Amino acid sequence: MNKYVRDAITFPHDARLAWRHSGARGAWREMRLRTLDRISRGGLALLFEHVVADVPRLPLPEGVRIAPFAGPDWSLFLALTSEKRIEKFKARIARGRECLVAWRGERPVGFTWVSTRMDADIETYALPLPADACYHWDLYVTSEERGSGVGTALAWERLHHSREKFYRISWRLIDIDNLASQRGAQKTASASTRVVGELRYRNLFGRSWYRFSPGVVSPETAQARAALMPST
Question: How much is the pTM?
Fold first, then answer.
């Protein structure tokens, strides 16, 4: 599906959900993502670390299974994303990245990615990933499954997957304006979760510039940092 058509179709649902959770700020973000951010976008993200041993095993949503997927037939994913993006998925697989897919029956309803290195042409940001760490990114759930627990299940499953692969920690970038991702991250946070740095970025017509600052604590990140703490 063309990304602009998908934007138009998904906007009413996503804007209503954003308004319910974040008011006008959330609804404006959904509009901005589909308009101004297509041309130029800058922001600030937190890089946080999670010790994967601190991960309980929780049941999956009823009727859902999650498993690694490497193709070769990606045709079912055309219901989720574009052919152009699927070509990028194939390139990720060829470069050693892993895709975890949530299935409802024979239909994919969500996915996420796990990387053991971070390269600018794949992950956008070439950060110094430790040898005992993996990077969790690009989590997507279909609009009809949002709120069903599929997104949280994918986030948990990639932590389990990393532990089974004998990695000690996981990294994840969360934009300080992405309230939905912050809520999702809080659900998997534990006492070991910590912020290891901040990343300022600028995307312009498909090109990206960024600066990563380990250990920095900027005042504007306070609310996002608090949101990433384990819920009580």
Answer: 0.81
